[in-house]
Amino acid sequence: MTESPQRNRPDSPGSLTGGDEGRQHQLTKRGGGAPGTRGRTTIADGVVEKIAGMAARDVSGVHAMGSGLSRTFGAVRDRVPGGGKSVSRGVKAEVGESQAALDLEIVVEYGVAISEVARDVRENVIAAVERMTGLEVVEVNIAVTDVKLPDEDDDEEESASRVQ
Question: Under a CB-based contact definition with an 8 Å cutoff, are residues 51 and 124 in contact?
Fold first, then answer.
């Protein structure tokens, strides 16, 4: 009769159930570490733009996002069936492997302190993007392109009233 191979014995070096603790540790190590650290995650520019757009709109004193031209095209796109509202209007993001830089165009309401609104937008956008993506936001540049006066109608409201 032949003797059974060593690997079938519980205390053999290659066994997962027996004796050699060092061997078990090597098997765990060979897998590449914790499952959450295996592989790579990439985040598209558009994802960061949407997050930043939503965060900027949440700030009191921000009336709209984008320059006059982009708001006009956006208003037309909003009326087209399936076009939907673009939350990333007025936001441009550059995303690298671990950092992001953002440029925002905003319209502020009349009477607010623009420097305070810009600071609040910066803080809110940085907090939201860093929390949701894990990217480091290196800069948020803000261009105030217009001021919404109290007696001005919104472009969208004005054109909607003419259509009725």
Answer: no
Extract the tokens encoding 36. Answer: 């959450």
Q: Which residues fall within 8 angstroms of residue 135, CB to CB, at 6 or more apart?
A: 43, 48, 95, 98, 99, 100, 129
Residue 101 has which token pair? 């830089």
Q: pTM for the full model?
A: 0.67
Average pLDDT over residues 42-66: 96
- Residues 78, 79, 82, 86: what is their CA dihedral angle, to the nearest 10 degrees? 0
- Which of 18-22, 67-71, 77-81 bottoms out in mean pLDDT, i.e. has the lowest? 18-22
Q: Does residue 101 contact residue 138 with C-beta atoms inside 8 Å?
A: yes
Cα separation, 81 vs 78, in Å, equals 8
Token couple for 126? 């940085």
Tens digits of per-residue pLDDT, 5-36? 554 445 545 445 555 554 454 445 556 678 88
Nearest Cα to 59, choosing from 6, 2, 131, 116? 116
- Give the torsion through C-alpha atoms of 59, 61, 66, 68, to 10 deg: 170
Report the distance separating Cα 125 and Cα 13, nearest Å.
55
